[in-house]
Amino acid sequence: MLICLVKPSKISKFMRLFLSLFFFAFFLMCFSVNSESITLEEALQKGLSVSYPIKEQMELLKKSKFSYISTIDLYLPRADLRATYTRTISPFSSVSVSAYSDTSRSSYSLSAVVSYRLFDGGERFAKRKAAYISYEKDVEILRSLTQEVVYNIKKYFYEALGKRHVVEAKRDSYETAKKIFDLTRTRYELGLARKSEVLQAQLRMESSHIEYENALAEYEKSTENLKSILSIKSNEPLEVEGRLEKPHSKLEKDDLVKRALELKPEIVLQEKELKRLEMVYKEKKSAWYPKIDAEVQHLRYDTNFFPEKRSDQFVLYLILPIFDGVGRYYTLKGITSEIAAAQANLEEKKREVELEITKAILDYHMSLKNVELYEKLVEEAKSNFEQSLGEYRVGKGDILSLLTSEKDLSSAKERYVSALTQANLALFYLEKVSYLKQY
What we know:
Layout: H1 10-31, E1 36-38, H2 40-50, H3 52-70, E2 78-87, H4 95-100, E3 106-119, H5 123-189, H6 195-229, E4 238-240, H7 253-263, H8 265-285, E5 291-302, E6 309-319, H9 327-393, H10 399-434
Parallel strand pairs: 1-4
Antiparallel strand pairs: 2-3, 3-5, 5-6
Helix pairs in contact: 2-5, 3-5, 5-6, 5-8, 5-10, 6-10, 7-9, 8-9, 9-10
């Protein structure tokens, strides 16, 4: 862009006013016109309602619930209706012929049987309990997925919110650089500044305008992750709304570790798995115990198609396994080893959780210190810029020092925004690994 270095006419003043209004309108268009603003709470509500992993796990949870309900059949009696037809090929050796005292080769029978298992060595209890524990495991998986979705929404939201504040900082920097350029050009027209100073101010103004445009592009790109997790189409505009503040949560490591070991879904899930394996062990152990079944039979038999002879019986069965190989013994040994492995896995998960919390809380405290440092840096850079601007206005300072101080102020603001963003993200991650907030 070429800048006229002579006394501006009314037309050039009109053009400058027009350009200023154009950039202001462009900024408003980018941030408000045809845009949907969304807060963090709204994003969480929408994200949890449209999350496909959560929907999938809820369906699996229903399946586990139905599987558990179906295990009640093991405790209910069983009723069967049986009909048979027998055609004797060799009547002299036929049991049916001698039984019916008839020379007919055809016999018919109809029976109704009601049976119930009185004792099974704990097999039914173990199966039903294992099914319920599997249901509880799916509940914990759902809690874990919900926690992961909440963290991702918060992360993407605050990343976009930080980029938005960077845009505002770059816009302020551009406006300040433009004011310095106007001031320098006015001083040049009055003969108080050199042409090189105007060119330097112009270069800084153009550079800050490029930074502002790049910040806008980065902000738009940062909203894509949020749009994706909220199931919003990429071509639909979305603006994040909220304040970017320093977090003030005071958290102690011991309290967080204790809470996580009690409530964190990953820990509870492994504990449920350990209990499930114990039920599997009891189920397999029931093969060593006898089975006792009771059965009531009503039997009709005859050589006619509609049998008339009847017999009513009550039968008590005792099934005692004496020898069926070595499978029962080694099956129990295998389950025992699996239980020991699950216990070791539980202890390893506890160790990992404690390590994650330790590292997360250190990162959180470090991020808070960075916020304090960059906040002081912004104050110092602002004071240095105001002093340089004041000296330049009265002709005591030079343009290079003024432009350098303005650039340092812009950089300090950007770093401060980044530090605030990282502090909030560190808090969200700490909440995740310690399961500090439940949804």
